Fold these 4 entries.
Entry 1:
Amino acid sequence: MKRNGIVAFDCDGTYCQKEVREGRKIRSKEIPPDIPLLIQLLERGFVVAVCSGNSAKHIIRVLMRPLFSTMYQQGKLQLAENVYAFFQLGGGLARFSRDNLAKIQKAKNWQAAEQLLFGAKGDGFATDHLDVDYVKRQSIDLAKHGAMLEDLMDAATSKYKQLFDAEKSRYKRSCHRRSDFENPEPELRRIQLDGNDNERVVQYTLRPLLSEKHYTAASNRGLKYEDSIRYKIAEYMNGRLEQQGAGLSATAAGEASVDITNHDLSKKTALEHLRGLLHEHSENILYFGDELHSGGNDVVVPLDLKITSFSVGHEAIFHPYVFAAPEPGPRGTFSVLHSLLGFSSTHQGNNSVVDAYREEHARQIILRKLDQLSADTLQSMALVATAGARDQNMRDIHKLVAEQVRSRHENQRPPGASHWTDSS
């Protein structure tokens, strides 16, 4: 089957959403992952890649187990050959070979198949599916850095408590169980590589922390992500790590934690590795995330890899490779992917479906913004339909649109934005 491109996405807040309550009030309703949509993508020749900052246990529970269970029951487990799961900020990678999937499909029942996929405990990927060499490259050398990291965690915890005490009044309405966040705990995130207790530590995590999401009380609206305590703690840790020259860095990840990993480890590393495995170009990848704002763990994807990314968060950077989904949250992701599937049924060009779709999406946005564009941009648009160097023309258009919209809109809303938070 012809490969139509890669669809990569974050998990929580992007392809599924848990219920969040503030006292008796439901702040966000649970949205389960759309499993049939993923199966349709796989059947149409798309590669599906999960890129999560969470643990293997978490993404197995919320996404992978429902997906693999459905494919097993439908006799379609061979489709998982095009499923890749990066977890713990890309420190771990699970991939599934054709031979292993054939054996699992022959298991007498789902319980037996589940053990072959996720081990006897069901809380991690079986070693057969782990890219062991990749995990070893991403792991932290605790023999070298362990003592330093313990000291850093103690210092960061003290710093956090100082910031928390100084700003308690900001959280009276936005955090009904403030005690949950007063005493953060450090933890090691490990990946089990084989049955002999051979483990690799890929994350040193401080959690739970008050995140930018706790700035949502009515009295506190308008605060920027950079004002959140969690962001300040990540900055503080990075300053200390840079002084140590340890080759490690801190990133705000998940909903309420800061993760320390090898400096090169990020969702960028994960997608670079996947791109190399599949010999794909960046223009054949679409990425979906809810943290495409400054400092978020998704933002490296468009900035460093020039991969077209759809934001389903409430705030994002202004960048020609970042577009807004029709609505925030998982439903925005589902909407764009259904649109991609519809586009794939009519695409007849030589380029991949993903490449053609991102070009068409950009073109449609420009058409909707005609009244805001200059004669130079309109002339460039005409070249798209007539010149052979289509890719170069699209890059020129992206650049022109970015410059013009930036000059016209102080709040930095990108083309097509429907739910961007003002960043001015």
Entry 2:
Amino acid sequence: MKAIVFLLISIPIFSGAQLRIEWKNDFEPGEGAATGIVLNEGNVILSLTHVTYLFSSGGTTLANFGSGSGAMEIQKVQNKLYLIGGTALRIGSLTGQILESYNLTDDDGYPNALQNGKILGNGLYTAHSYNYLLKYKLNGERVFTKKVAELSTPEFLKAGGGYIYLHCNVINPSHGTRLMQYDTLGNQKWSIPVGYLDAMVADKAGNCYITAANPESTVTKINPAGEVVWSKLLNGQWAQGMSVYGDSLLLCGNISLNAITDKNQSCAFSIISATSGDILHQQDVDLYEDINERERMKTIATDGKAIYIGGTHSDENPRCFLIKLSREGNTTGIGENKTSNNFSIYPNPGGSQFRISCGQSDVSTLNVTVRNISGQVVYKKQISCNDQKTFTLDLGKQAAGNYSVEIVSGKDKTVKKIVVE
């Protein structure tokens, strides 16, 4: 892997608060495509198809998981890292070592070529290259094999809310491309037509998000009952990777074909509200000077402080990259303005209940506004300091993550960062 290249330039955006690249890592040809990102206590784990790396939040390489450590899916469960790919399930530490490895086979004893897979509860669910949904124990022992159709080709498998979601091209019987929901016993709950997809993800509540394979992506949210909640066009962008953070859906890919000018094929990413589908932020990112070089973002993740994106560039002998982006001039994602020291918020980090203390403020009215990492207002209230000096801030309806609290008192404004756990 090559040395880190630090980029200090600002990047043009379509809307929202501007982000900048803090650093970019380039990888050697032959290490494979970027397939997944896991964030853990300030460190970044990036899986490629042939190898997996551990980086610090500053971009320094801390560990290489070793030859054959590549994965098609990567997932953190408690204090272990699960790497799913090839014909094996590998279990690693979060510090860069492979601890265990189990070869996975089908009913006939043949190796199962893993193109997908997710850990849910105490099992690994994966779809066979042709016709089957399989469950394995985390020691590699097969639990069940369920037939999906007489002839089918699985494209994506995700899990959330106690359900497994499988996107599959059902050839026989001729049903076309469908999204299917299964319970943990392998029983199909429903199957709906969705067309060809570029990306799919499920959240903890069991909602499934899909992007249709169009020049410009259409993003759709489907609830656990199989009903469409919303469907939005992602203007100017072609999404090929997705992740969920709190109430935000992060998407990455390219600018769309109709947005390309002068052969520029740069990357693009978006943040949208998982609740409404409203676009909160869009930005294109041109990483390489050669305007004929195609850049593709494939996997995206955030810890609420920064956004990490992995992808590839060049059509001939493609190479991977990993970048870290944060709000311009603010590497923590959400700023903290200490114009006034009259106010305190505690406990912090907290569960979802916080106390705001007015301290020595002589202002009778406070305007309190809370925003999530995407800048979306999630709470707004005017309170009076005349009768009492402490107030409860209830964020019980909000997802875990980082938030900013803006307190306006007269001409003074204080912005403090809090963490909902």
Entry 3:
Amino acid sequence: MYELIYYNARGNPQDKKHSTAFSYLVSLHTTKTFHQYRQSPSSPNASVNLSTGHGSHLLVALPEKPTLHVYLYGKESPEQYIPLPEIMTCLSTYKDPNEKTPSLLLGGSISGRLYVWSLNSGLLITVKQAHYQPLTHIAAYSGFIATGSKDSRVVIHSLNTLLINGCDDDLKSDNAFAILTDHTLPITSLNFNKGLNNDLKLVTSSLDSTVRVYSITLSSQAKLATTIVSTDAVTSVALDPAMRALYLGLNNGQIRYVPLFKANPRTKVIEAVGGLGKIVTLKPDVDYLDTFTCHQDHHKNASDLFISQLKLSLDGTLLVSGDSKGCLFVVDITTKQIRKKLKELVGEISNIELWTIKADDSKFDNSGVDKSVMRFIPILKRSIMEEKDLNNQNLLMKLTTTGPKDVWNLSKFLKDVQSEEKV
């Protein structure tokens, strides 16, 4: 199994033609580059891949224009230019666990609105005035959509409520699942843990130097479980896949490791750090035992350096980090050694995505042009859908043939076991 890294940057604001703005899809463990995209600058967290390989699409929201660039894998230049209602400052998608590709596109605007589009039809399902300042991050998982903004608030929506009350423009207290107001400065990252529905947690970070972990349940909404106070402003956060630790990207170019479980020095029993509303204050790491300094060392302690993006590999052993200068490193977590330095980009690293593929995946072979590939996505509507749109909507989908599934036959199994016992 291979792991791929997609990354892009904000680009140079003075370059109006975006001639220096590139995106790359590369291998995590080797030097192979799978694809390069041109003219693809975006604000932080404002680009998203719908899938990978031949027939997949990359969506990039331009940082200073209400325009969406749509790229088709295998082609460097944009395949579509879709006008948007306003400038989008962040993008995300929602994928049902039973689906292979996302069904909803989520956009956060410069005016604080949350847009929800159907990717199969292009219909604008709902628009919510979630915040009063630009959105900075959108996270979606297990029927919940969380939005963070420069107004320091985090709003959690229930997907069912958004779809049922699609035509209601006002964000009332009974429409939002929860409104979190514990932070005091702009939100920098939102992360759901990929666990069970009854153990869902949301990790938020802010420029107020705090990271907060909320426990989310349908019965009790969102409860603050742990508050981590850092030594510097937190600009990005990565979660360990097993929720064993957090990695905090700081505004001084360092990355701080925060374990969520520690051994009790008296009983030697592993205990959870935090929980039940506790406040955990991090002490200065003078000896750099829990600190990664690869970005700080590379840029010689630059004053305006900060970690903009963090991601962890599937097994939790490699850390992929990007900074405000356009540099990216793949670091071994155990030894803190740099495994790989990726190609530098112009401007702040805006987005990092990690994908896993099979070694023999036919989507990445160069066997020629597939004429059956859907080159375009539906045009995204700029007005909220009405009832007549639901009755007359056109779905753009590619239907594939699948072989018959093997159904487990209980009676045959019992007969086989019975015959084996006789022998």
Entry 4:
Amino acid sequence: MKFTKSGTDIDSIYKLYLENEEKEQDLDNWTPNVQDQEEGSARDDILPKGLAPAGMRPTPSTTEYTGGRPNVDPKMLQYFIKKYYYRLLRDGQQESTIIYGEPGIGKTQVVEQVAKEIANSEGRTFVTDEKIDTPGNPTTEEILSDPSKYWVLIDKSTGDMSEEEVAGFPSPFDEGDYTKVKPMEWTKFMVTEGLHGIIFLDEIGHAKEEVQRVLFRMINNRKLGKYPLSTGMSIHAATNLPDSISAGSGSSEILAPLINRFNTVQLIPDPLRWGQWARANGVHPLVVMYANYDPERTFYMDPEKMSPQERAQFSDSKPFPTPRTIAKFGQSLTDDMYLLDLVINHQGTDLSLEDAQRVAENPLIKAVMTPSGSVDNNKLWTLINHEAAQKCGQDWAQGFDSYVMNYLAIKWDEYLKNPQKITE
């Protein structure tokens, strides 16, 4: 889906409303139809010229819903996060999004990716709060002394937070007649004017009720205690589906006043876009291909489409496939295949110090290499599929094993030389 800016933006549309507001109207006799007729059909002015009204669109909206929440893929979610961020910069209007979705589908990764894109477009240095003051990253002093150079993603898991970790701790030992509340150190980036970023409240469905109330005040007032949030600091959140929808998620319903301050969406993983990300992040191509083979079974299992038996695995501690677990397995497989290639096909060559150390440290090499220098394939694939089952579950691992066996049995060289053979 492409999002392009038309010649008429939201400001000019809003201006039309303001112009109509300024006109004196007979409120006692006003109806929408009368106004349309008297003003020469206001409906002609309510949309930019050339934009078809809803009744003239070739097809109706294709928005799909999960539990009443509109579904978004990662690309659409990034669009809305950007839109609300720039609206905040332009007019100070806070719009926060809460992202619902199953564990491991990449909610945090989507937010981090769009954060990096915004930081790059603004020419600022991107950093996550957990990497501040670590080697090769900006220090707290550098950021606070020149906040206009930096863009910070503040990623906090609210599920294990106390009220004081958000609102601050009373400090009874200060001089004076009144007790002061001191905010936690991590919150100082949120209130540093000139610093841009996203406050990402992860696992908000796990947060205690008193923590949710503090977060409500922060989002509603754009203040942390008495300190206003930075003008360029937007707020978003994520949560697993409630237990009522997905057994074993650990999430509960969020307080109504808090949820009402959010735009709510349901993140649905996109296997093709995930595949692009996966190949760029070291996931083995066999894993990427299998994940896209039958996505509803091999990539993402929608809880609302599962049988009762399938849903049960979410509550009885069985592993199951998610984009996160599949990526972890695929990255591990890439590492194993790379080291095996070094050992098998580069014997007698000098390895780099790093590669030599990796070969020496990886127990797979000793486990599958025979005294003659060949690979014990049965042992190799037993270990590989055991790891797949640990991360993605028995069914996924067995399916991957069959897929790989069939894939490797195909004589690809012959088909590439003579594509006509595929139809034989």
